[in-house]
Amino acid sequence: ASVVAERVLASVSLGFIALIGVFISYRAAAQFLSWVVALFVLSVGLLILFLNTHLVERFLNRARLLNFFDLKQKLVEAGRALQAPLRNQNTFISVLLLSLVFQILVVAVNLAVLGALGIRVSAVYPFIFVPIISALSLLPISINGLGIREGGYIYFFSQVGVSTTQAVAASLGFFFAVTLVSLMGGVILAFRK
Asked: Is the pTM of this model over 0.70?
């Protein structure tokens, strides 16, 4: 339930961050507006879906493929476990604000990686592209988003003059920065136990 809650709230934050990019420069963002709107609508729709337990259970009851490994029951239980924290306004707002700050920092790290690689793009584009790529990377179809993230960097950044090689380098640079910080957290956790 905590993983599902994190994914749902992260997707909502990603939608808001992409909207910030549109507000920074609508002119620069105009050609990607359909992506931003789709991300925002899907993320808010996902949140509404998980706040409505009956709707989730009705959908899961019709999804016959989820009968394997009691997956249907586990998803229903996860949905119910999400209800309390998501309906507690103070908790919900606190977590959403922290998620927004985190996603802004993710954009900032991407800007730093792009700068370190000598890739010059307007700051508007990472505010739009990184949330969309992050949302695509949340899909459970690859290990840690590898491949999807690189494809996203190539697709989006190539439209603003970044070469394929530079886009892949930026994606891998971000991945390795996040991995390094995560490993440091793992070491700290191991010594605390």
From this structure: yes
